Amino acid sequence: MVETTDEKGFVEDREATLKEVELKVNQNNPEQVDKVIFHTAGGKVTWKPKLDKTSYEGGFKIAKKVPMEKDMLPDLFKQMAMQCNEKGQVQIKLAYNYWKTEVDGE
């Protein structure tokens, strides 16, 4: 049996220095974003953008989550990335959930 200890929480209104916004795209479809990584002076903050998609097959309603496409990302992310490219870094306020997991003492 694998024992894990999780530390979870929520951070609100934390100021950070954003240095870069990175997109990890799907290798099979480069328009789909698997992960957005915000590189800050204090570490990385990641977001996996997903959309709810509904379809019907054989009378059944099929609901699934699919990766968001680049053109659907919030305009704010694009503005932040441009500011980082122009100025080198930008001061931002963050709010995010976090968790740290330790498995078998590692």
Structure in a nutshell:
With 106 residues, the protein is mainly beta.
What does this structure look like?
This protein has one domain. The protein is globular, with a radius of gyration of 18 Å. It is 12% helix and 64% strand. It has 106 residues and is mainly beta. It contains 1 helix and 6 strands; from the N terminus they run βββββαβ. A hairpin with a 6-residue loop joins strand 1 and strand 2. The longest helix is centred in the last third of the chain and has 13 residues, at 75-87. Strands 1, 2, 3, 4, 5 and 6 form a 6-stranded antiparallel beta sheet that branches.
Provide keyphrases for this structure.
single chain; 106 residues; mainly beta
Q: Report how far the terminal alpha carbons are from each other.
A: 15 Å
Q: Describe the largest sheet.
A: 6 strands, antiparallel
The quaternary organization reads as single chain
- As a whole number of angstroms, the C-alpha radius of gyration is 18 Å
Q: Which geometry do the CA atoms define?
A: globular
- Total DSSP E strands: 6
Helix % is 10-25%
Helix and strand topology:
Layout: E1 4-25, E2 32-40, E3 43-47, E4 50-57, E5 60-69, H1 75-87, E6 90-103
Antiparallel strand pairs: 1-2, 1-6, 2-3, 2-5, 4-5
